[in-house]
Write a structure and sequence with these properties.
The protein is mostly helical and about 150 residues long. It contains five helices and no strands.
Amino acid sequence: MANRGLGTALAAVGIAQLLKIPCHYKESGEWKPGKIIGSGGMPSSHSSGVTALAAYTAMKHGVKTPEFAIASMLGIIVMYDAMNIRRHAGEIAIQVNDLDADVEQLAGHHPGIYHKRRSEKLKESLGHQPREVAAGALLGAVVGALGAITSR
């Protein structure tokens, strides 16, 4: 890849996605290969990618450069979004997905002609807990440093 910084960041994302499978297994005892393409979970691949980019940029260009400032601000925004906005959206999805059962229970399992059960559930695993973001950032810092050290 011609852009080593981008390649390093993408490698960090890929490694984080691969690690989601054994991390999920360790946490739940359930082997779920589909985790490799999903969002949410341990470690955060978004955090890993942006941290790898920032670490690579810092080591190759220095921390006083506009490139590092851009990479750092991108990282801050992405990690804030993952821990807050996307995580809360996932929590709301859980509540929305439970509404059908709640309505049916309140109506005595006879909700009437106006209630139609949702055919598809909303995706509940969207964001990250702070520890998942921190683990992704740590992984990204290591991958970013290795990418900078091994580049020409």
